[in-house]
């Protein structure tokens, strides 16, 4: 089966993004990582992964990546990632694999592992357990979500497997719209769920069940076996780390 791919390349700050300024480029997606624009690295990985395509790229300035996009379709991104995904999925349909332009270390084997483990659900999110990240990328500082049964970092890999998965995107949109209104966010998720999350008594099973209750979608957290999958290039220290990992990696 061929999976269409959506690559999120938007940046709220455009040429004012810290990484765009660091790389002296017009957009973060064009930042050179070990001499190659990170968007190009992601696209090359997609091309090298069997069973993927066609590719759609979502970015607020389509003209700045036309030379890199190849045969990919370019869509103008919306004002937030959730809205960009929702609008793109309306055109692409499901199933659809979603990743990001700043996933400069992305490897075909990570995608294949993720898709193999994600089969049979409406929406899946790739994650790496904290112990796995610390094993494979010693000393790195990542953002972790702490549940009672696992601490994990996201890997910027998502599968919207069926039309029901769109309901989760709509929930994500509502949460983003209320991100500066904690009470409304709490009411959206449910006060009980929020309280359990704050006190770290919420486990992954209960979290996925709550999302299913709210959306009707079967959601799964897919753990990947390589902790490097949790490394994206979101700040200058990430760029240094990514280039160090690439220098140590055998092609």
UniProtKB/TrEMBL annotation:
Keyword tRNA-binding included in the entry's annotation: no
| InterPro entries in the cross-refs | MobA-like_NTP_Trfase (IPR025877), Nucleotide-diphossugar_trans (IPR029044)
Name it.
Answer: MobA-like NTP transferase domain-containing protein
**Gene3D superfamilies attached to this UniProt entry:** Spore Coat Polysaccharide Biosynthesis Protein SpsA, Chain A (3.90.550.10)
- Please tell me whether the keyword Nucleotide-binding is annotated for this protein: no
Per UniProt, the keywords (alphabetical) are: Magnesium
Origin species, per record, is Gluconobacter albidus
Every copy of the MobA-like NTP transferase domain together lies at 22-125
